[in-house]
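Design a sequence for this backbone.
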């Protein structure tokens, strides 16, 4: 009986001792503020009676991080918690209680006001335009989400609370800052050549996010240009455009990548006369795969070269490229050739009129030829004057039979360059 009573008293005594420890006075006036030197930490202060303390972070509708710090008795009632200890985009309190790592918590926790750890708002998009030898990048930022802890102790006052650090990455290199952090929404890069990638490292007091990307691309182009073209008949110039861009990830060297998108503008340039400036002759855009197929109106003989101009679209700007010049020689085009009246059968003794028209409207002399069946060669019959691109010859139908004629049109000079001549199709005539 005495043994049981002794055990019961021991239990009561232990319970009394535990209750006494757990009811130590709690700290008071727990406050949080930004630590000096650039808001790299949250300064926690409190009041107590020179007791050891335990500091933790509690989530408010957010998961509590595993942060614990013990402050010995006699140390100042203040501690700096690095911002990296707080998870981003949540609501938290700092709790301070009396306790040690060996003896545990011996008081109720006192808590700071609630504050949020919302990170910066990422730029939603960026545009770029050439400016001198460099580029001007502009970006927009969406409206910040609703603040559920307005005017909390760690809110930074003012409208421009986040800053943007401009970064540029090149092939084989890491993304590097090219200027100080700014609160503006534009960045002028005075001298830069593609390929490169531009990004913004957006910062506020809590975290950093990357956005506002711009690609600076280089281009290469090839072209197939016909060697001959009939005057005023469009030729088709075909080829392919390949873009070269830079892709970057944080803490990894940037890599080079190829792209063949649709919609890249392509301009066909020509030089009308020797020594003249290159002027646009036709325009087009690439199709998926980077291919283009452009109809080009033709005039006299002339060279052509195809170029991708400097252009920007959304978050990218493309550098120019030009193919090697290729010469297309023009050939006189036969617009019409035949016999008057449209019939190829004539009665003996009647007058036959054979004619042709050509482009360009030349003034020259053409030759009417007839096919000699015995020698199997074309024989010259009559030189005929051509005026304004038209020539005609009238003659009397002689002996009956079947005959074949053609006009031979000589070459010419146009805009200081030679143009090849041509022949009409064979013109068959039956005389009965």
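Sequence:
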């Amino acid at each position: 009986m005495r043994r049981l009573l002794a055990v019961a008293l021991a239990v009561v005594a232990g319970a009394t001792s535990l209750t006494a420890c757990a009811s130590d006075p709690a700290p008071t006036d727990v406050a949080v503020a930004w630590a000096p030197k650039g808001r790299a930490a949250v300064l926690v202060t409190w009041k107590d009676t020179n007791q050891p303390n335990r500091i933790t972070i509690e989530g408010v509708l957010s998961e509590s991080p595993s942060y614990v710090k013990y402050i010995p008795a006699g140390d100042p009632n203040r501690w700096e918690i690095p911002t990296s200890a707080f998870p981003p985009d949540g609501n938290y309190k700092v709790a301070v209680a009396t306790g040690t790592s060996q003896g545990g918590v011996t008081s109720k926790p006192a808590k700071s006001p609630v504050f949020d750890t919302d990170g910066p708002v990422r730029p939603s998009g960026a545009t770029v335009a050439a400016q001198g030898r460099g580029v001007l990048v502009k970006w927009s930022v969406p409206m910040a989400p609703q603040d559920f802890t307005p005017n909390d102790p760690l809110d930074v006052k003012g409208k421009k609370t986040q800053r943007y650090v401009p970064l540029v990455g090149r092939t084989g290199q890491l993304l590097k800052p090219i200027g100080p952090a700014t609160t503006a929404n534009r960045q002028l890069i005075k001298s830069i050549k593609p390929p490169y990638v531009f990004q913004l490292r957006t910062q506020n007091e809590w975290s950093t996010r990357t956005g506002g990307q711009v690609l600076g691309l280089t281009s290469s182009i090839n072209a197939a240009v016909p060697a001959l073209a009939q005057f005023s008949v469009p030729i088709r110039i075909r080829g392919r455009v390949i873009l070269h861009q830079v892709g970057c990830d944080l803490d990894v060297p940037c890599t080079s990548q190829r792209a063949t998108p649709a919609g890249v503008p392509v301009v066909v340039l020509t030089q009308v006369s020797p020594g003249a400036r290159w002027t646009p002759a036709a325009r087009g855009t690439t199709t998926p795969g980077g291919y283009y197929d452009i109809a080009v109106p033709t005039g006299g003989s002339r060279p052509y070269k195809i170029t991708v101009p400097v252009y920007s679209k959304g978050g990218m700007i493309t550098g120019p490229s030009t193919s090697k010049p290729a010469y297309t020689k023009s050939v006189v085009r036969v617009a019409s050739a035949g016999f008057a009246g449209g019939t190829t059968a004539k009665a003996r003794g009647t007058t036959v009129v054979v004619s042709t028209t050509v482009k360009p409207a030349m003034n020259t002399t053409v030759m009417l030829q007839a096919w000699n069946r015995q020698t199997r060669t074309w024989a010259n019959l009559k030189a005929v004057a051509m005026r304004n691109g038209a020539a005609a010859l009238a003659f009397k139908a002689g002996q009956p039979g079947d005959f074949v004629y053609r006009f031979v049109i000589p070459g010419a000079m146009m805009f200081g360059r030679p143009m090849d001549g041509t022949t009409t199709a064979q013109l068959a005539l039956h005389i009965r």
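Confidence is low (pLDDT under 50) at residues 1-20.
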